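Appendix B. Worked example

We walk through a single record from start to finish. Start with the input: the chain for Phage holin family protein, Demequina lignilytica, length 129.
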Amino acid sequence: MRFVLLSAITALAVWLVTFLPLGVVVDGGETGTWARIGVFLLVGAVMTAANLLIKPIVDVLTLPVKILTLGLFSLVVAWFMLWLTSWLSTLVPWAELTIGGFWETVLAALVISIITAILSAIVPGARRD
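Next comes the structure step. The output line below is what the pipeline stores for this chain.
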């Protein structure tokens, strides 16, 4: 149940970031509103799965660099997770997340992280206990 909540929260965060001029575009689901919502939910689920499964491994591997940069390398890890989500979404023919340049994507990943953190704190059951 927590995965579904986090996927919906992440989908909402990605949807909000698409309104900003950061080069993040979600393609697919042009046939109707529910199809478009499904595309965002799929992108949210892929991003949530990447953050729950792959990000802990990447965090452990990049720990020395994070210590040297006083945690600023976490932005690069967030960029990598967004890039990985973009790459994984290309494997689905009807939903695709397109990202812009490096700095635009770093800023988009930061905004998605902030929105997800705020919404996860507000929505009951989404927080890790």
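Two observations about the output. The first helix runs from residue 2 to 17. Helices lie at 2-17, 33-53, 55-61, 63-68, 73-89, 102-122.
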